[in-house]
Specification:
Number of domains: 2
Number of strands: 18
Shape: globular
Helix content: 25-40%
CATH architecture of the largest domain: 3-Layer(aba) Sandwich
CATH topology of the largest domain: Alkaline Phosphatase, subunit A
Radius of gyration: 24 Å
Structural class: alpha+beta
GO cellular component, one term: extracellular space
Number of helices: 15
Pfam family, one: DUF229
CATH class of the largest domain: Alpha Beta
Largest sheet: 7 strands, mixed
Oligomer: single chain
């Protein structure tokens, strides 16, 4: 972004013609105030005058159960608004990027990158983002986050070459983070909690509300993505601090009247991924089951009763962010929610399921099959919550074999990078055995099990990384294979500074300290 050095003296009333401004106040030559403010300018191209708006409101690193424990006021606010809470919402992969890219593109991250990052392009501009679909329909689009360093498209990624949406908060956030005092709740926080005189997330919500009010005033339909990271990202219990902030934002949204013409989706990308809780089975499950709620305008319940009934029917079904993508995309064509078209689509879905070719993504306005498996839904095996696990001795021969396989696979990925140390197996910290989700409906006696999975947690050296992975065991052939990626359960700090790509930062222990090479 480009910033101007032009200074405009402030009078009692000073017109603002720019999108962002920095305001400074001095007293006898001493600065007494500095802050940044954003303004929503009218869009120049023709806009759609009617349509259902969409607001994706996010809270990073928040499981559904942690929301119940730590954010009761926000949960109550959603319930007052008539939220439908999806209890079977399962993350598809490990961290934020690989869960939110499917939300916004409809495809797993690697698949999306293969398809749209062509001609050695490193920018995300060519990709089929959800907001582009709304923009083509004449909607005003907005992309807003509260943590510049941890931004979805900028954490170890270059972002966009051109402004991706009509209203983008990133230039405002970058300037504010550079010039305002920042404070962290505790030493390990990766993002500031406070920026200047307020919570960092409050700056996001203030700007988001300005956008909403401008859209309401001009009766302009919009697509808005507003993602909060700073308060919930690092520590399990910091969600308690976020609770009144999110509650107030929901109340202010309601006061604008925007929820009469807007579908609100409140969601997270995953549960807590690091820290003491992930060493427990409870933490293992919570990481895989983030929060997802839908708030629809009351008139939609009356006008599209079958669609809303299907949404409620899916509350306890296995659903993912790719289903959310399909659901939100369908809102650009409300006629598709009318009963005849919806029943025809449901019949087509039923036929595909019976033929053994179910779609990976299903709009939640259709009945999601109760036979759906994680594999069918595009969930990486290691992150599937639909597996019944029982503890196994850490010195069991199959467990030791699986642990060695896990470490060998990591070393194979690190081998081309000489600054990353070769890892050794220090200890097996936990082991659990279960059947893959595809077999849960056909459970076999113990002496006839054909296939089983081991969830293994190991500690490696050097670096004492705690790593967890799922190893699939084909019993008859006595063959083991790693099922999906390996996750890290403790923080790596700056020990992975030399890792050449985002995915390897979880495992790489650099043999030289930063700045030596």
């Amino acid at each position: 972004p480009r910033y101007s050095d032009e200074c405009t003296p402030i009078q009692d009333v000073t017109p603002v013609f720019d999108e962002f401004v920095r305001v400074e106040c001095t007293s006898e030559g001493t600065e007494v105030y500095r802050d940044f403010h954003g303004f929503v300018r009218a869009q120049r191209r023709p806009r759609r005058r009617r349509g259902l708006s969409v607001l994706l409101l996010g809270a990073d690193n928040l499981s559904r159960l942690n929301m119940v424990r730590s954010m009761p006021r926000t949960l109550a606010a959603l319930q007052r608004l008539g939220a439908v809470n999806m209890l079977g919402y399962n993350k598809v992969d490990d961290y934020s990027y690989v869960n939110l890219v499917p939300l916004l593109s409809g495809q797993p991250s690697r698949e999306m990158e293969r398809r749209c990052l062509l001609d050695n392009s490193v920018f995300f501009d060519p990709c089929p983002w959800l907001w582009k679909r709304f923009a083509r329909q004449g909607y005003t689009t907005a992309l807003m986050e509260d943590a510049a360093r941890l931004g979805l498209f900028h954490f170890h990624s270059p972002g966009f070459a051109r402004k991706p949406v009509d209203v983008d908060s990133r230039p405002l956030l970058l300037a504010a983070e550079r010039e305002l005092p920042r404070s962290r709740a505790r030493a390990g926080n990766t993002s500031p909690v406070c920026l200047g005189p307020r919570f960092q997330i409050q700056g996001l919500f203030d700007f988001a509300l300005k956008f909403v009010r401008a859209m309401v005033q001009t009766r302009t339909p919009f697509f808005q993505y507003a993602w909060g990271t700073s308060l919930t990202h690092d520590y399990l219990n910091q969600a308690q601090i976020a609770d009144p902030v999110y509650e107030r934002f929901l109340e202010e949204l309601e006061e604008t009247g925007v929820l009469n013409t807007t579908a609100l989706v409140f969601l997270s990308d995953h549960g807590n991924r690091v820290g003491p809780i992930v060493s427990t089975y409870q933490g293992h499950v919570e990481d895989r089951l983030p929060v997802l709620s839908f708030v629809l305008p009351p008139w939609m319940h009356r006008r599209y009763p079958v669609a809303v009934a299907n949404l409620r029917h899916n509350v306890r079904r296995l659903v993912t962010v790719m289903d959310v993508h399909e659901t939100v995309a369908q809102l650009t064509d409300l006629a598709s929610l009318e009963e005849p078209r919806l029943r025809a689509a449901a019949e087509d879905l039923r036929g595909r399921v019976l033929a053994g070719t179910p779609p990976r993504a299903v709009s939640l306005f259709l009945p999601v099959p109760d036979t759906r498996t994680c594999e069918q839904a595009g969930v990486v095996p290691h992150f599937c919550a639909c597996v019944h696990l029982t503890p196994v001795a850490t010195d069991h021969p199959s467990v030791v074999q699986a642990a060695r396989l896990l470490v060998d696979n990591i070393n194979a990925a690190l081998a081309p990078h000489p600054l990353c140390a070769r890892l050794g197996l220090r200890a097996v910290r936990d082991a659990r055995r279960g059947e893959p989700s595809s077999l849960l409906g056909q459970r076999q006696p113990p002496d006839r099990v054909r296939e089983q999975e081991f969830l293994i947690t190991v500690q490696t050296t050097p670096g004492d990384a705690l790593l967890a992975g799922t190893v699939r065991h084909l019993v008859a052939e006595n063959v083991m294979r790693l099922a999906g990626r390996v996750t890290r359960l403790n923080k790596y700090g700056n020990t992975s500074w030399c890792a050449p790509e985002r995915a390897l930062m979880l495992y790489c222990f650099c043999t030289e300290p930063p700045g030596v090479t």
